Amino acid sequence: MTYPTDLRYTKDHEWIRLNEQNGHIGITDYAQEQLGDVVYVELPEVGRVFAQGDQFGSVESVKAVSDLYCPVGGEVIEVNTVLETQPELVNKNPHENWMIVVKLTNPDELASLIDADAYASLIG
Fold first, then answer.
1. Count of structural domains, the chain
2. Edge-to-edge, what's the strand order for the sheet holding 74-79?
3. What is the 8-class DSSP label of residue 109?
4. For residue 45, which of 53, 56, 55, 54 has the smallest C-alpha distance?
5. pTM (2 decimals)?
6. Range of 81's domain?
7. Looking at residues 57-82, what average pLDDT do you find?
8. Is 2 within the bounds of a domain?
């Protein structure tokens, strides 16, 4: 798997795609592969505010339940409600099927995230 270079990644296998002051957040292909078939996605309500590293939701698969962590701090301005009825989309194209959009509170936090090459090296 190649990892999109327009994303920044966490060591916990989340990604963020920046669009001005907003960031679309989801899980990586590696994460969905490790989880197996995703059967449920729990996401926060619009308006919730999270600090970098806070748990913002969870993903349930046939194998396990995994927590989701916010790569940067921000306010949730949009939730991908399609995943409520079609959680399997996370498996189909994890780098396009985002989970939440946050308005960043501190864009400098992006510097603590890794690029595609560093993420690919991390997962080996």
1. 1
2. 8-9, 14-19, 22-27, 100-104, 74-79, 49-50
3. G
4. 56
5. 0.96
6. 8-109
7. 97
8. no
